[in-house]
Design goal:
This is AAA family ATPase. There is one protein chain. It is built from twelve helices and 14 strands. By secondary structure, it is an alpha+beta fold. Among the domains are: 159 residues, Rossmann fold; 99 residues. Strands 2-1-4-5-6-7 form a six-stranded antiparallel sheet. Strands 11-12-3-13-14 form a five-stranded mixed sheet, with helices on both faces. Strand 13 and strand 14 form a beta hairpin.
C-alpha cells in the first residue's frame, strides 16, 4: 500500500501563519488563493519536512513572527514527522513510539514527488531517460537506438549515392547504332589488307586470261600463215594444232574461273578506319551508361536492404518496450523522446503532461503515494477535473496550488491563514465583492 499524507499542520513557515489541512486520500487537493498569500509556502514546508534540509527554504521563518517555524505531518503508515526551529530539527516517530530519522523518510519518499517541476522542466530526452531507467530497459534501448541511427545514416548515404548514380546514368548519351565493344583500327586495317591481297590475286588471274587470249590470237595468225606451207610443215602444223587445243582448254577453264570472280569492296572498312575514334566514343559512352545504370541499381538494392534492417531494429525496439512494465498505457519512447498516445511532450495537453509525470514519479518510488504540484492556474477547470478523476482511479494523492479562490479549490489561503469562505462573504448592505477578514478558531502554535 503506497504511503499518503493524512494531515498537515504548519506555523510560521515562510508566508504561512497557521494552516491545518487534511488532504483527500486520493485525487486532487487544491490550495487556492491570490498571489503572495502563502500557497506555495505550504508546499515548501511539506518538501522541507519530508525531503530534508537540502530543501530547506533560504528564509524559513515567517517575517515578523516571534515563534519559530513548526511543521507536523502525519503519514498513512503511521509515521509522524515534525520539524521545528529555524534549523529544522527533525523528529520522526513510528506508531510504536520509536524514533527514526531522514533515512527512513528517504526510503519511501520520491525526490520527484517533492520536486515535480524538476521533471516537468527537464528536456524531452531526459524525461525519456528517466522512464527507461525506471523500467530497466535503458541500456538495451540505447543499443537499439544507436544501431537504428547507424543504419539510418548508412542508408541515407547509400540513398544519396544511388540518386547521384541514377541521375548520372540518365544524363549519359546512348548511341543505338554503335557496336557493343570498342573497335580496333589495327583489326580493320588487317581486314583491309586481306581483301586487297585477294583482289590482287583476282587481278593476276584476269591478266593471265588476257595473256592467254593474246597467245591464242597469235597462234591462230601463225596457223593461217603456215596453212599455205602445210605440205612442208605438216608435222609442225599438227604440233601447233595440239598446242592450240591445249591452250584453248586452258582458256576455257580460265574464262569460267574469271566469270565467277567478284571483287570485295573495302569502302566500309576504309570508312570504319576513318571513323574508328568517333565509333569508339559512342561505344565508351554506351558502356559508361550501362555501368552507371548497374551501379545505380546496386546502390538502390543496398538502400532497400538497409531499410529492411532498420524496420527489423524498430520492431525489436517496439517489442522491448511492449514487454516492459510501463507505468501508463500509451506511454512509450520514440527517437529517444517521451511520447504519450503518439504525441511528444510539447504536443501533449496539460492534463496528459501531468498524468505522464505523475505516473512516472509513482513508478520511480511505488511506496510514495503522493505528489506535490505548484501553479496549477495554467489549467482550466475541465483539465483539472480530468486530472483529478485519473488520480482517483489510480489511487494517487496530489496536493497542488492554484492562483484562484474558486470552488475548485479545497482550501483558500489568505494572509497566511485558511480562509473561511462563508465568513468572508460580505454581509447584507455592503458592496458586492467586499471580503471580510478571516477569523480563526485556534491560536498560533495550537492545533
Amino acid at each position: 500500500m503506497s504511503i499518503k499524507i493524512n494531515s498537515i499542520q504548519l506555523e510560521n513557515v515562510k508566508r504561512v501563519k497557521a494552516v491545518q489541512l487534511e488532504p483527500s486520500e486520493t485525487g486532487l487537493t487544491i490550495i487556492g488563493g491570490n498571489n503572495r498569500q502563502g500557497k506555495t509556502s505550504v508546499l515548501d514546508a511539506i518538501v522541507w519536512a519530508l525531503g530534508g534540509n537540502r530543501y530547506k527554504p533560504s528564509e524559513p521563518h515567517r517575517e515578523g513572527s516571534v515563534t519559530d517555524p513548526y511543521i507536523k505531518i502525519a503519514l498513512s503508515n503511521g509515521l509522524l514527522v515534525e520539524r521545528t526551529g529555524k534549523n529544522g530539527s527533525l523528529k520522526v516517530t513510528d506508531p510504536d513510539g520509536n524514533k527514526a530519522g531522514q533515512q527512513l523518510l528517504d526510503s519511501f519518499v520520491a525526490e520527484l514527488a517533492l520536486n515535480l517541476p524538476k521533471f516537468m522542466s527537464a528536456s524531452n530526452k531526459d524525461k525519456a531517460e528517466t522512464l527507461l531507467n525506471i523500467i530497466g530497459v535503458g541500456p538495451q534501448l540505447h543499443d537499439l537506438d544507436r544501431k537504428e541511427q547507424e543504419l539510418y545514416n548508412k542508408r541515407h548515404s547509400i540513398g544519396q549515392i544511388a540518386d547521384q548514380k541514377k541521375k548520372w546514368a540518365a544524363e549519359q548519351v546512348y548511341y543505338e547504332d554503335a557496336p557493343e565493344t570498342l573497335v580496333s583500327a589495327g583489326e580493320l586495317i588487317k581486314q583491309q589488307q586481306e581483301i586487297l591481297l585477294r583482289n590482287q590475286k583476282n587481278k593476276e588471274l584476269r591478266d593471265e586470261k588476257v595473256a592467254l587470249e593474246n597467245q591464242v590470237q597469235q597462234l591462230q595468225q601463225e596457223t593461217a600463215t603456215i596453212a599455205q606451207q602445210i605440205n612442208d610443215l605438216q608435222k609442225r602444223h599438227e604440233g601447233l594444232l595440239a598446242e592450240t587445243e591445249s591452250k584453248l582448254l586452258q582458256l576455257e577453264s580460265a574464262s569460267k574461273t574469271v566469270e565467277q570472280l567478284q571483287d570485295e569492296s573495302t569502302a566500309e572498312l576504309e570508312a570504319s578506319i576513318r571513323n574508328v575514334d568517333a565509333i569508339n566514343v559512342k561505344v565508351r559512352a554506351n558502356l559508361d551508361k550501362v555501368r552507371a545504370e548497374n551501379e545505380a541499381e546496386q546502390y538502390g538494392n543496398q538502400y532497400t536492404d538497409l531499410t529492411g534492417e532498420i524496420e527489423a531494429v524498430r520492431k525489436d525496439r517496439m517489442a522491448l518496450l511492449d514487454g516492459a512494465n510501463l507505468p501508463l498505457d500509451g506511454l512509450s519512447v520514440q527517437d529517444g523522446e517521451l511520447t504519450y498516445k503518439g504525441d511528444k511532450w510539447d504536443a501533449m495537453s496539460g492534463a496528459d503532461q501531468l498524468i505522464v509525470a505523475t505516473a512516472i514519479v509513482r513508478q520511480l518510488t511505488p511506496d510514495c503515494g503522493f505528489v506535490l504540484m505548484d501553479k496549477l492556474e495554467q489549467m482550466d477547470r475541465l483539465t483539472l477535473e480530468q486530472f483529478g478523476k485519473w488520480l482517483e482511479q489510480e489511487g494517487l494523492q496530489v496536493i497542488a496550488t492554484r492562483v484562484s479562490t474558486g470552488e475548485e479549490c479545497t482550501i483558500v489561503i489568505e494572509d497566511g491563514y485558511i480562509l473561511d469562505r462563508q465568513q468572508a462573504t460580505a454581509p447584507a448592505g455592503m458592496p458586492p465583492g467586499t471580503r471580510m477578514q478571516p477569523s480563526t478558531a485556534w491560536k498560533a502554535g495550537e492545533f
